[in-house]
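hey
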């Protein structure tokens, strides 16, 4: 028999300040779930309803985050799109393209990762372009003058990516 921890799901989904505590009665009240009281069958039905509503909330959060990311992605300039494409090509050549993920920070810096490990950041908009270079021991930020300089420095990202994956 398999079990699922609904309390863990509640903790992952709802903020403590929204419910005051993690008691079934409080979560039930938060969701506006009606039930007949504190009887075993009613608690099971209520717990199932909490489970369904938490899953629905998590899906909504995921969809909102995806929509926000897609909106930001659509606002990338051509240099940023080309940079991402070039990095993907280079990582594909060493079999790591599928492990690369990126997110866009509020200052328009793009953060690149292999799984949970950061491989670097780049900013290719505004008056100043910047690029972060990492290796096993150092983190270095460069002020760069052009897209071409950023692409030239990709060889260090690829080298570091190979190190991380070994």
């Amino acid at each position: 028999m398999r079990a699922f921890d609904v309390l863990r799901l509640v903790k992952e989904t709802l903020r403590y300040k929204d419910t005051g505590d993690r008691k079934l009665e409080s979560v039930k009240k938060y969701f506006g779930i009606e039930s007949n009281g504190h009887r075993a069958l009613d608690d099971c039905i209520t717990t199932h309803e909490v489970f369904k509503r938490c899953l629905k909330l998590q899906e909504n959060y995921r969809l909102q985050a995806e929509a926000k990311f897609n909106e930001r992605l659509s606002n990338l300039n051509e240099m940023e799109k080309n940079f991402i494409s070039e990095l993907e090509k280079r990582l594909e050549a060493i079999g790591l393209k599928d492990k690369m993920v990126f997110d866009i920070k509020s200052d328009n810096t793009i953060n690149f990762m292999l799984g949970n490990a950061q491989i670097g950041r780049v900013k290719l908009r505004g008056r100043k372009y910047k690029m972060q270079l990492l290796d096993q021991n150092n983190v270095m930020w460069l002020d760069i003058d052009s897209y071409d300089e950023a692409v030239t420095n990709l060889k260090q990202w690829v080298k570091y990516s190979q190190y991380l994956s070994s």
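The chain has two domains: 6-73, 77-165. The first strand starts at residue 100 and ends at 104.
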